[in-house]
Amino acid sequence: MAIHPNAGKTASQSCLVNVPKLVSAYYLNEPDLEQNPEHSVAFGTSGHRGCSYDVKFNESHILAITQAICDYRKHNDIFGPLFLGKDTHALSEAAFNSAIEVLVANEVQVITQENDEFTPTPVISHAVVCHNKKNPNELADGIVVTPSHNPPEDGGFKYNPPNGGPAETDVTKWIEDRANQLLIEDLVEVELFPFAKASRSGFIKYQDLMTPYIDDLSNVINLQAISDAKIKVGIDPLGGSGINFWPVIAKKYNLDLTVVNDQIDPRFGFMPLDKDGKIRMDCSSPYAMTSLIALKDDFDIGIGNDPDYDRHGIVTPDGLMNPNHFLAVAIDYLLNHRDWSASVEIGKTLVSSGMIDKVTERNDRKVREVPVGFKWFVDGLSKGTLAFGGEESAGAAFLRFDGTVWCTDKDGFIMGLLAAEILAVTGKTPSQLYNELKQEFGAPFYKRIDAPASTAQKNRLKALSADDVKAQELAGEPILQKLTHAPGNNAAIGGLKVVTENGWFAARPSGTEDIYKIYLESFKGEAHLALLEKEAKELVDSVIS
Fold first, then answer.
1. pTM greater than 0.85
2. Residue 199 catalytic?
């Protein structure tokens, strides 16, 4: 895709969303599933998302989803409190209030951040995990109102069951089906309690969720080392929900942290435009992170996060690190600086870099390779059998020093602070350490492309079996593996991965667009990557046409 001419430039007035109009559409537009199936509730890899203009994220959707979650809780005997958080998107406040009306009507004990402040995803996950460890007979769960890094006009709503992490497919399918049934039946079975009276109902508890999370950070990050080394850290919250956490963290642990942008604006008008000319708070994008990258020489480490703080972007004096590169460095460092059991494994998605495999093998540990989606790491993190779970899209979490669970959702705070710890302990930046890995294992070349595909072709790709792939060679090398199920858990990947000795590709259909995505990596250079791309596209097209 061509880079937009304004990519990396601050958004102009014409790019900014009309917030009053957007919020009005949230309340005024009504989904009609019979006439417009695209108005349905649809949970992707991280909850239901959409825009109120498109009638994909409206009051009726949130009322139905929240009632479905209440029904799911009753069906599964979940009677503990529900931790409710929200990010800084314009629609998050409206959806948060809608959810409260349903939760209180269903007599769910809601715990939310005091002073009605924003609450990051990892803080909700941490709160659920800690509560359930102390109260196994009164299990809690959580909801976070966020579309993650999506544009300002989008809304999002995700459910974390009592394990604290993203809900598995069977859970989201149950909630999705129930919510759509409620919508078709005009919400007649949705229970509502007026928001104006909710705070006096006894079912809303405003609690300090920030302090317990921050106080516990020393059990997962070597903050003393960062303080002693006087690591200078610059932070761009990208207008996200963790913005007020950083000054408290700095004061408690005597850290040299500077928040370089303290603006909260539901239009995100301070953001540089992403590669396609849209506002998108993607902390892995060099265009969205232009402002922090410009300050790279002013700090030892720069940290960026998305609005709900489940992703991280790491900036060193060399620039913004590729997410795959930092994951490999983080894993290598943790396996050498944590006293974890020799049996713990490293979790990676099947589209993450092969450098992770090489680093993990060198440290005498096993890789657990799973389909795309952080939900596949939740059970392993909960049980302490996975030391680390990470996605190529810049989301990860890992265990405490003692080898027990920290949280079971992606945590942008600890990944950013880990970059500072790595520099403090090793004296080298994560980008310098990645250069050492390249010298040791060779430099991988990684790429993602999109290719057109009809709905029928996407369905064929999703339903492929390994036997459908007749090719025996790819880019001049024998094919070693043809995967339609992830080797780490045998779960269907919803596509195809083909592996050779020095390269691989994976193809997955998009859930929202008429395209399929191809991820490619070569350890033999750019020419081999180009050949891999050409033959991968030909191979996929041949089996789905």
1. yes
2. no
